[in-house]
Every structure is written in structure tokens, then in C-alpha cells.
Design a protein that fits this description.
The complex is a heterotrimer.
Chain A lengths: L2 E12 L2 E12 L3 E5 L6 H9 L5 E6 L5 H4 L3 E3 L12 H11 L5 H10 L13 H14 L4 E4 L8 H14 L5 E6 L11 E6 L2 E7 H8 L3 H12 L5
Parallel strand pairs in A: 3-7, 3-8, 5-6, 6-7
Antiparallel strand pairs in A: 1-2, 1-4, 8-9
Chain B lengths: L8 H14 L12 H8 L3 H13 L3 E4 L3 E4 L3 H25 L4 H19 L1
Antiparallel strand pairs in B: 1-2
Chain C lengths: L3 H36 L6 H32 L1 H4 L5 H33 L1 H14 L7 H35 L6 H38 L7 H28 L8
Helix pairs in contact in C: 1-2, 1-4, 2-4, 2-6, 4-8, 6-7, 6-8
Classes of the chains: A alpha/beta, B mainly alpha, C mainly alpha.
Chain lengths: 237, 124, 264
């Protein structure tokens, strides 16, 4: 299988605080991968670095491109829509996405909106937490790209919304695209993951196939993930 | 479908489909849903479902037809063998557990008879 | 890669809605003030209407300028906008252009309002002009001079607008980029120092601009007018060159260091 993304010697600090230290990572095409780690471990930062919205040192290659402006065309990220006025209607936001992303697919968008019961005439400010997260997922998956970065799409939402989001991920993932989905709590998404990547102590602590964990270690993915913190001892908050 | 996260997911999907075939929910010769549809139905990853199907193909319980999808085998002997295998698996587990409780073979049979009789009464 | 047209549309949307809102409020303001004047017994003549319009133009153009600055700066640190697949140069120039176009748009509306005021009071204007030409030596000022003066005034104004935008943006991005190298307290101190420096600079520059501006206005005041047009054009050019240098630095900062606000 070919790699959709390759990261070499990636470092990032903010306000002189080291957040990621010498990250090296290869991610294959066609997978659903869980990006795990505690709150504040650097999951969001890693995604922001991949999109080019944060700047570190080191090389990030996505679909053969290195420059941030080129990578952006191959990566779809769950942006939290803060650039829009709160009173904006969903339909207007869809128009914005259609305008700025050449790879935006109207058919996918309509299908996703229907599947997730989203009404285009609704205002974003009127959406519940679960529905806003659904909208973000719908917009992110409406683009046709090689790499999707879903940043904690399940945090703080009800189980029905969660199930809907998981199903839309399964249903709308293009066959050869890879989805990287971050969470600090693995059990809810474990069954759909091919692989997990764990960030701990500012770098990649492990990258493993989930069925390999179950088969070779006889452990649930959740227990395995927790075991990484038992033996280490030097946890950051 | 609810998965046990300690057991490989592909294995659980395979067993789930085998149950459907043995119980006749999927008839011999019937077409299986498309991979992506199956993935949605059981809430698992397409790759994992594909792995389960590949093993089922290798075990000759389903047959892929180019461009059409996967079909349950029409060889009823194969399905019979599969059923025997599944029954044997369950019996092995139960037998082993009961044996570990220091029950003799006769006692196991006796307990099983008693169990089935009482269960019947409760159900009436 | 997103095309220039699409990017321009995306970056202009909010600014355009804002411009239209300001025009609407301005029209309401003008109507209310005119209404009040009539109510108090004044007749709507040239002096009254142009006076009201000049006041309104000053207030609402300033307001438009400030709103455009705020909306423009937000785009640089907004993930929503910075995820758009374009180069930093294209993003910067398009954002600046969309502010500029919106500013000109609201400016044109002012022009139209003045034109309406003048045409509805055409007879009065002619009367005024013929009176003036007998009092001051008005005939020495020809139409070409008036146009030259106007053009110079507008160009100076637009150059000032661009330079102000590029300067504010540069400060904004410098303080954002500093986050990479300074601890939180140090960054706050730097931002403070930058603002003090810039406010001082603004006072100096405003004084300088005021001179330029009155220079471009001289055709209204001085008989035997001989404004230094060449000087005005050269100064305008200098402003634009400074703006271009600031733009290059800002684009590099965006490319190399400036992170968007982390809102997730």
C-alpha cells in the first residue's frame, strides 16, 4: 500500500513550550486511523501542522506535496466554522465551501445532509452541539480528497449523533482515502479503526493495527491504550 | 452490531455472517450485501469487512462473482459442515467450562437434561 | 488550487454585506437629518445638503474603514479562511484588494450622493459660481485644475488607506509570529511595545499626511493656485512603496510563522 502522508523530524513549540518533539510518521492510503492521546497531548496541533495552519520545522508530505498551499488541496479538516458570523445559514456556509474548494462535491453534500438530518435553512447558532458536529462532518466529508482529519468529532455529543457520525464516516470515506480521527477516549470508535497512533510525551508513542492488538495481545484496544500510561509513569497532566 | 473489543473484529463479522448462513437468514446462493453496505450494517470498517469476506471466500462458504458481488455457496454440504463446526465450537466451550467444574461426562449430560427441562417449564 | 475569482468572492462576502449595511445606515442618517432640518424650518438648498453629506461621508467612511480593517485582520488568523488552498501571496493580495474594492464602493456611493445634491440644486450652483467669479478671481481656476486636484486628493486618500492597512496588518502578524519565540508574558510585553511605537508613529504620519492633504486641497483656497502636483504624486508613490515592503514582510510572516487561532 502507498503512503498518503509522511512526516519527518517534525518539531513544534508555542510560547517557548515544546508541544511536539521529533515526530516521524507514515500513514497508508485507504485506512481509518485513530489518533489518540490525552487532552493537550498535541493531537489538534499535529492536525493543524498537517493542514499548514500551524508552522513547525520538519517535512510534511501529503500525496506527494510538501508546500502548505499544495497540501491544503489534499487535506480536509474539521474546521469549527468560527470564521462565519453566528447567524449564518447552513446553506450559505455550503455555498462558501463550494466556492473555495474545487473538490467540493454537491452530491456528496446533499446525501450527507439528508443522512444526518440537517436543514440548510437553519442558522448555525441555532444548532445543538451534536448537530453542529454533524454539520462539520458533512462539510468535511463533502470534499473529495486523499486525507481527512477529524478532530475530536465525538467530544461532548449524545450517543445517537455519535452513531450517525460513525456511520457517515464508514459510508462516505472514498475507498483510497485515509481518515485520521482524534479522540481521547477510544472505546466508542475502536470497532471502526484499522490502526491507532498514540501521541504521548510530545511524540508518537506507538502506531499499531487494531486487530493485531486483539489477536496477538488478546487485549481490547482500550486496555492496550490505557496500558501505555500504566507502564510509563511520567504522565503529563 | 455490538463487538467484543478483545476479539478481532474481522473474526466477529465472519462469525456473524456464518450464523446468518447456518440459520438460513442468508439462503444458499443468496447475494450478500455490498461490502460498504455490510460495513454500515455492522458498524465496522470496510477494510475489516473485506478481510472477513476474504477469509470466508478462502473457506469456500461464499463465492465471489466478478462484478456482481459475493454469493452464499449453493453447496449445502459445505453449509452443513459449517454448522457442524459452529456447533462443535460452542459445545467445546461449554464442555470445557463444565469439565473445569469437576463434572463427569454423565453428570454433564444429566445437568444438561435438567436444564433443558426446567427451561421448557419456565418458558411455558 | 482555488481561483482568484472564487477567493475574492469568499473574502469579499462578509465585507460586502458590511458595506451595504453601512450604506443603508448612512442613507437613513441623511434622511433623518434632512427631515429634522426641514422640520425646524430650513429649506433644502445646496449648502445644507452638501454640508450634511460631507459630515455623513466623513463619519461613515471612517466607520467603513475601521470595519474593513477588523474584518480583514480576522481573515489572517481564521482557520476557516486559511484552510483555503492558495498561496500566502495570493491570499494577502486578494484580501487587501477586497478591502480596497469595498472602500471604493462605499466611496462611490458618497460621490453619487453628492452628485444628486448638486444636480437637484443646479440653478443655485450656477448662481453661486457666477457670484464667486466676480468676488474672487475664480476664472483663473479652470476645470482641468479642479479635476487634477480631486484626483490627487482621492489618490492620496486611497494610498493612505492602503498604507494604514498594511501597517496594521504587519503589527498584527508580528505579534502573532512572536508567539513562536517568546513566552506568554514576553509576547504580551512585545505587543504592548509594538502598539506604543505604532501609535507614536501614527501621530507623526498623520501630521505628515495632513500636510499632503491640505496641499492637494489648495486649489479650493488659493487664488493664483500653483499646487505642487508632482510632489503629491511622488509622496503617494512613496506611501505605496512602503506599503509594498510591508506587504512582502507580512506575506513572509504568514508563510513562515503565523499560526491561525486554535479554535477547535
Amino acid at each position: 500500500m502507498s503512503n498518503v502522508m509522511k512526516i519527518e523530524n517534525l518539531n513544534y513549540s508555542h510560547n517557548l513550550v515544546k508541544i511536539l518533539n521529533d515526530v516521524n510518521l507514515k500513514v497508508e492510503s485507504g485506512k481509518i486511523i485513530g489518533l489518540l492521546g490525552e487532552n493537550g497531548a498535541g493531537k489538534t496541533t499535529l492536525m493543524r501542522l498537517i493542514t499548514g495552519n500551524a508552522h513547525g520545522t520538519g517535512a510534511i508530505e501529503v500525496s506527494g506535496t510538501f508546500q502548505a498551499k499544495d497540501r491544503k488541496a489534499h487535506v480536509s479538516f474539521t474546521d469549527h466554522l468560527n470564521g462565519f458570523p453566528a447567524g449564518m445559514k447552513i446553506g450559505k456556509i455550503v455555498d462558501f465551501y463550494r466556492t473555495v474548494y474545487d473538490d467540493f462535491d454537491d452530491k456528496r453534500c446533499d446525501d450527507l445532509m439528508k443522512f444526518l438530518n440537517l436543514d440548510k435553512t437553519m442558522k448555525v447558532s441555532a444548532l445543538s452541539k451534536g448537530n453542529k458536529e454533524k454539520l462539520i462532518i458533512a462539510l468535511t466529508l463533502s470534499r473529495q480528497v486523499e486525507l481527512y482529519l477529524l478532530d475530536e468529532p465525538f467530544s461532548g455529543i449524545d450517543s445517537m449523533s455519535r452513531k450517525k457520525i460513525i456511520n457517515s464516516i464508514i459510508q462516505w470515506k472514498p475507498e483510497h482515502a485515509t481518515i485520521l480521527v482524534s479522540d481521547h477516549y477510544v472505546s466508542e470508535i475502536a470497532p471502526i479503526l484499522d490502526e491507532i497512533i498514540v501521541i504521548k510525551n510530545e511524540t508518537i508513542a506507538c502506531q499499531k493495527q487494531t486487530d493485531e492488538i486483539r489477536e496477538n495481545k488478546g487485549m481490547s484496544v482500550e486496555n492496550f491504550y490505557e496500558s501505555l500510561y500504566d507502564e510509563g509513569g511520567n504522565n503529563n497532566d | 452490531m455490538e463487538f467484543d473489543d478483545k476479539i478481532p473484529i474481522y473474526y466477529q463479522i465472519k462469525n456473524y455472517l456464518y450464523h446468518q448462513i447456518v440459520t438460513g437468514e442468508l439462503d444458499p446462493g443468496e447475494k450478500l450485501p455490498a461490502v460498504r453496505q455490510l460495513a454500515v450494517d455492522v458498524t465496522a470498517n470496510v477494510n475489516t469487512v473485506q478481510r472477513a469476506l476474504t477469509e470466508m471466500i478462502n473457506e469456500q462458504i461464499i463465492e465471489p462473482q466478478r462484478g456482481k458481488g459475493n454469493f452464499v455457496t449453493i453447496d449445502v454440504d459445505k453449509i452443513k459442515q459449517l454448522k457442524d463446526k459452529l456447533v462443535k465450537e460452542q459445545l467445546t466451550i461449554a464442555y470445557q467450562e463444565l469439565h473445569d467444574l469437576q463434572l463427569s461426562d454423565n453428570e454433564i449430560l444429566e445437568e444438561l437434561r435438567k436444564f433443558m427441562k426446567n427451561r421448557g417449564v419456565e418458558n411455558e | 488550487m482555488t481561483s482568484f475569482g472564487s477567493l475574492f468572492k469568499a473574502l469579499s462576502g462578509e465585507k460586502f454585506r458590511n458595506s451595504n449595511f453601512i450604506i443603508l445606515i448612512e442613507l437613513l442618517y441623511v434622511i433623518v437629518i434632512l427631515g429634522l432640518s426641514v422640520f425646524h424650518g430650513a429649506s433644502i438648498d445646496l449648502q445644507l445638503s452638501t454640508g450634511i453629506l460631507a459630515g455623513a461621508a466623513f463619519i461613515f467612511m471612517s466607520f467603513e474603514f475601521i470595519r474593513l480593517t477588523v474584518l480583514s485582520e480576522k481573515k489572517y488568523t481564521s482557520s476557516t479562511y486559511r484552510l483555503i488552498p492558495v498561496s500566502d501571496t495570493k491570499f494577502y493580495l486578494t484580501n487587501l484588494l477586497s478591502s480596497f474594492v469595498n472602500f471604493v464602493y462605499v466611496g462611490l456611493v458618497q460621490g453619487i450622493l453628492f452628485a444628486i445634491a448638486i444636480f437637484t440644486n443646479w440653478n443655485e450652483l450656477n448662481h453661486l459660481l457666477s457670484n464667486m467669479s466676480t468676488e474672487v478671481n475664480f476664472s483663473k481656476i479652470n476645470t482641468a485644475d479642479i479635476f487634477k486636484g480631486f484626483a490627487a486628493m482621492i489618490f492620496v486618500l486611497l494610498a493612505i488607506a492602503i498604507l494604514t492597512w498594511t501597517t496594521i496588518n504587519l503589527i498584527h502578524l508580528l505579534s502573532k509570529a512572536a508567539s513562536n519565540f517568546l513566552p506568554r508574558t514576553g509576547k504580551n510585553l512585545l505587543t504592548f511595545i509594538l502598539y506604543v511605537l505604532v501609535i507614536g508613529l501614527v501621530f507623526r504620519v498623520v501630521g505628515f499626511f495632513t500636510d499632503q492633504f491640505s496641499n492637494s486641497m489648495q486649489f479650493f483656497t488659493g487664488p493664483g493656485y500653483n499646487a505642487n502636483y508632482l510632489g503629491i504624486w511622488i509622496n503617494t508613490l512613496i506611501f505605496l512603496v512602503i506599503a509594498a515592503v510591508e506587504a512582502v514582510i507580512s506575506i513572509y510572516l504568514n508563510y513562515r510563522w503565523v499560526d491561525t487561532n486554535n479554535e477547535n
